[in-house]
Specification:
Elements (H helix, E strand, L loop, with lengths): L4 E5 L3 H13 L4 E5 L3 H9 L5 E3 L11 E4 L3 H6 L1 H5 L7 E4 L5 H10 L6 E5 L20 E6 L5 H13 L3 E4 L2 H28 L6 H5 L2 H7 L6 H10 L1 H24 L2 H16 L13 E7 L5 H11 L4 E6 L8 E7 L2 H13 L4 E3 L1
Helix pairs in contact: 7-11
């Protein structure tokens, strides 16, 4: 792609990661950004990610080939009238929200449908903010595009090419189909995880027995319950119609399970797990699959004081961020094993090289 100018309105985890990825892939591109908090802008400028820092959204963004709206939907909407006053016919206006119908309605109301292509990079982290953004967050993640019916096909193709260049997997959908799909595979699971955690919390003993014995299965299914409550309040309210649809179906399935248990129909329970297991096993977990890849390694350690700190220091002094770290208690290996998770493949590969150089035995899966 030739020289481009990219504008960002808000630089959080997703906006910052897109900006860092574009800078990595297209170092010649000009990137300008506005953010309510000046700290993120200063950091992005100092890192060389952003060429121009903007104190407000104004005419300076008229030169942009792409404008990314990366704030919450309600905040994005507040900028639409200003953007309409200067946007060029060949500029792609997009967002990064996980619901699309709401923003599409607001775009039509503002008369910007000829420029708008909704965007949803299906990647993320439990952490938020520009300081946690990474140039590899989008790698092998589905990136859904929801163009309006009136936007030019060439603009859709330009955006698709940009997404592909960033290492993501573009998928073009109608905005309502997108919201139904994400309600089923993302929004409802977050609600289920949060409600399950609260169910266990409310039913725990005074000695916190349930919390004490909560093992891998419970932690795996409820990991996403730690996500930002502010963000998920907005998502669930914005996509409430589609969530209610799939929630009703889920409640019905739970009622069927209860009836099977009451009647002692073991065959029903067997079929529940059998069909679920078959479908779950058909979902690809590798690059390009529909489940976001995890970047993790296992490292043999000596059972002595400071062993974990030594490894953490090796990684930290080389600028490698750790997403999670912990000892494996149900030993699959003969010796003590440290499990380390990273935010992206690049960090994982750097860590493996460093640790092996320090004569650690490293396993990858």
């Amino acid at each position: 792609m030739e020289q481009k100018t990219i504008g960002f309105i808000s630089l959080g985890l997703i906006g910052g990661s897109i900006a860092k990825t574009i800078r990595r892939i297209f170092p010649q591109y000009r990137i300008m950004a506005y953010n309510r908090s000046p700290q993120a802008l200063s950091q992005a400028f100092e890192e060389g990610v952003v060429n121009e820092v903007c104190s407000r959204v104004d005419q300076r963004f008229a030169c942009c080939d792409f404008i990314f709206l990366c704030a919450p939907v309600a905040v994005n909407v507040s900028y639409l009238e200003t953007i309409k006053s200067f946007i060029r016919p060949d500029t792609v206006l997009t967002d990064v929200g996980s619901t699309k119908s709401d923003i599409h309605r607001q775009i039509v109301k503002a008369g910007l449908q000829d420029n708008f292509i909704g965007g949803h990079p299906m990647a993320g982290s439990e952490k938020t903010g520009y300081s946690n953004a990474t140039a590899y967050l989008l790698e092998n993640a589905y990136y859904i595009l929801t163009p309006t019916s009136s936007v030019k096909k060439q603009l859709v193709e330009d955006y698709r090419q940009l997404v592909s260049a960033m290492g993501a997997l573009p998928l073009i959908l109608d905005c309502q189909l997108h919201d139904y799909a994400t309600a089923a595979v993302s929004h409802l699971p977050h609600l289920i995880a949060a409600s399950l955690v609260n169910l266990v919390k409310d039913g725990d003993t005074d000695q916190q027995l349930l919390k004490t014995i909560a093992a891998g299965g419970f932690k795996d299914i409820t990991r996403i319950a730690s996500s930002s409550p502010d963000m998920w309040e907005q998502i669930c309210v914005a996509n409430r119609e589609q969530i209610q649809l799939v929630l009703s179906r889920y409640i019905h399935s739970l009622q069927q399970i209860r009836q099977s248990l009451e009647a002692g129909r073991g065959k029903d329970i067997y079929e529940l797990f059998d069909t679920a297991g078959e479908y779950r096993n058909s979902i690809s977990i590798g690059p390009g699959g529909s489940i976001r890849r995890t970047y993790e390694i296992y490292c043999d350690i000596i059972d002595e004081s400071g062993a974990i700190a030594t490894i953490a220091t090796i990684l930290a002094t080389n600028g490698i961020s750790i997403k999670n770290i912990g000892i494996i208690h149900n030993r699959e290996f003969e010796e003590g094993v440290l499990h380390i998770a990273f935010y992206d493949r690049h960090a994982m590969e750097q860590a493996v090289e460093l640790l092996e150089r320090h004569r650690y035995v490293v396993y990858q899966r």
